[in-house]
């Protein structure tokens, strides 16, 4: 066997994002899961929580589940910041309860936008880690030099070492007051007491003022010079448009773009004849029942019928991309039949 929490902690320190999955219809935090979460301590800024399968419960019940989840997470994560929880149904199957479709679409975009922004966020996190490590080095230098200074030159070294380890919290407090160091820069006292047991304090190096000056220069000047570069990269990033590329290529098209306005209907005939399934007559009946104008259905009217399939908007957006062959933002009878065929094929698996 191996130390599973230690392995998780090792990975948590090195990854850029940690996603915790919960099912809306089966919400619980087991003892094993609690142990996993405790192993992630110190990496709360990387954690995102996904409340999946939210289409399996009604809106009122979903609100209760969300509140219960936040209460449970508050007991496990002892941090002042509230964890970001994304609500949705993160697969391509039909929504069982489609009342919150709009919410699911927005949450899906937010989650994957967060993932797409990982390169910029990771650079900022690494810079923050550098600052944190530099401050920790400065504190360790003061602690080690003070321990070396307190040790006797000849007799009573073992007893003095035990006394210094036992009084380490007082030593931390004195260093904090003398050098005006924030309490958050200090290492875990109990952990350091444990590690100091195997070291010879007399062999610790002394304090080197010139190296401390260089470290202060890094914190006050060099790090500050890097911040505008990150800010410039953020300003140059493209705005809007939602998540792009990968599985989202083509999913935000037509009436499923998240903010599309109804296009003006223009008369026109599609000369090329499309081959559709034997159910063409059935789709024609639906098509003309939706009252097309000029032989075409607007995106808004077609969307209303397509959404009734309960398929996720990302899937319907891809179907719209394949069906709107002439890219005019509307569907004629042949394009509508193709869309109906693709929806039927998706529903049949």
Describe this structure in words.
By secondary structure, this protein is mostly helical. The protein folds into 3 domains: 4-116, Rossmann fold; 121-234, Topoisomerase, domain 3, CATH 1.10.268.20; 246-347, EF-hand (Recoverin, domain 1), CATH 1.10.238. The protein is 54% helix and 5% strand. The chain is built from 13 helices and 5 strands. It has helices at 4-12, 31-39, 59-76, 101-116, 118-150, 157-166, 168-179, 189-196, 209-236, 280-289, 299-307, 313-323, 333-347, and strands at 18-23, 47-52, 85-87, 297-298, 330-331. The strands form 2 sheets. The protein has a 3-stranded parallel sheet with strand order 1-2-3. A two-stranded antiparallel ribbon has the order 4-5. α2 links the parallel β1 and β2 (47-52). It is elongated, with a radius of gyration of 30 Å. The two termini are 41 Å apart.
């Amino acid at each position: 066997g191996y130390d599973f929490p230690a392995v998780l902690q090792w990975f948590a320190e090195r990854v850029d994002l940690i996603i915790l999955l919960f099912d809306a219809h089966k919400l619980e935090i087991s003892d094993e899961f609690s142990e996993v979460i405790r192993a992630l301590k110190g990496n709360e800024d990387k954690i995102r929580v996904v409340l999946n399968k939210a289409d399996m419960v009604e809106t009122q019940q979903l609100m209760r589940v969300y509140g219960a989840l936040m209460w449970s997470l508050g007991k496990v994560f002892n941090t002042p910041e509230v964890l970001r929880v994304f609500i949705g149904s993160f697969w391509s199957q039909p929504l069982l309860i489609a009342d919150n479709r709009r919410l699911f679409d927005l949450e899906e975009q937010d989650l994957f936008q967060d993932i797409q922004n990982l390169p910029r966020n990771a650079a900022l996190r690494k810079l923050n880690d550098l600052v944190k490590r530099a401050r920790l080095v400065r504190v360790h230098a003061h602690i080690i030099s003070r321990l070396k200074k307190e040790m006797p030159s000849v007799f009573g070294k073992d007893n003095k070492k035990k006394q210094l380890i036992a009084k380490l919290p007082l030593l931390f407090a004195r260093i904090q007051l003398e050098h005006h160091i924030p309490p958050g820069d200090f290492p875990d006292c109990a952990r350091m007491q444990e590690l100091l047991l195997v070291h010879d304090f007399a062999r610790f190096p002394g304090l080197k003022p010139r190296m401390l000056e260089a470290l202060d220069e890094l914190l006050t000047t060099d790090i500050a010079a890097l911040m505008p570069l990150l800010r410039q990269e953020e300003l140059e990033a493209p705005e809007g448009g939602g998540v792009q590329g990968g599985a989202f290529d083509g999913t935000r098209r037509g009436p499923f773009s998240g903010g599309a306005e109804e296009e003006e209907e223009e008369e026109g005939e599609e000369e090329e004849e499309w081959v559709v399934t034997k159910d063409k007559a059935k789709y024609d009946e639906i098509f003309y029942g939706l009252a097309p104008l000029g032989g075409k259905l607007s995106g808004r009217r077609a969307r209303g019928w397509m959404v009734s399939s309960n398929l996720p908007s990302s899937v319907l957006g891809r179907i719209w991309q394949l069906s709107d062959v002439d890219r005019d933002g509307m569907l004629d009878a042949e394009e509508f039949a193709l869309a109906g065929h693709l929806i039927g094929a998706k529903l049949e698996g």
